Every structure is written in structure tokens, then in C-alpha cells.
Amino acid sequence: MSQYYKMGDRALWNPSNGASRLFMSHVAVYQEEVGLPSGIGSMEADECQIDPVAFAVFVDALLAWHSKTRHAVMATLSEGFVATALALAEKANIEVNWQAAARAESGYLKTASDPHAREWTAALQQKSRELARHVAA
Fold it and tell me: pTM for the full model?
């Protein structure tokens, strides 16, 4: 069994029920964390609609939040959800504001002693692109 994430009549993603349930649980957590609605509607009859405008705003806020989060555990816990949301945005042809993430990262670099800090945004962008191939409708 599976569920559909749709934008209008277009199916963007058709994950298993388990993957969808986990994803929707994370949506609720990160809506609270960034203080914005995700634009992902409730699941009804194994389908939900995604509002492209609200989702674009949410994804940009989520990416900015993640880029500023340098707590190792929080960054690790959130990376998978952020990458999945970015992959879904890519499938929806939503332009993601990677420059804001890079700016947040460069502000961090001024005070960071972590030699890998420069790689975080680039690695997340690569991971989301790879994941987009697995986010199939």
C-alpha cells in the first residue's frame, strides 16, 4: 500500500504507508520548529495536496533553519527530513533559496573551528539531488 503527495492532479511522490507516516510525523515537528505551515495537507483516502506557495516558503525557512543549526545532534537528526523536503521541492519544480543557506553557513564559518563546516550546504544539496531520484510518483 502507498500514499500520494500531489500538487493539483500531478503526483509528486508515492511512498509506502510507513515512509509516508514517518514523513508526516516529521512535517508536524518541523512546522513547529520553523513556525510556519508546511503547505502539506492532511492525508485523506491515501492522498494529500501540497500548496506550492506555502511549501516553497516552508522549504526555504527549513533550509535556513538547518543551515543555522550547528548543534551536531540536531543537525544529524534533521538532515534526512530536510533532504527529503528539498527533494520533494525539486520534484515540484520549486526554486530553493540555496543562497540563504550559504550566507548562514558563511556567517558560521567566521566563528567555527570545524574544518568541514564549509561542506555542509554543498553536501545537503547533493544528498537532496540524489534523493530526488528515489522520490518517485
Answer: 0.82
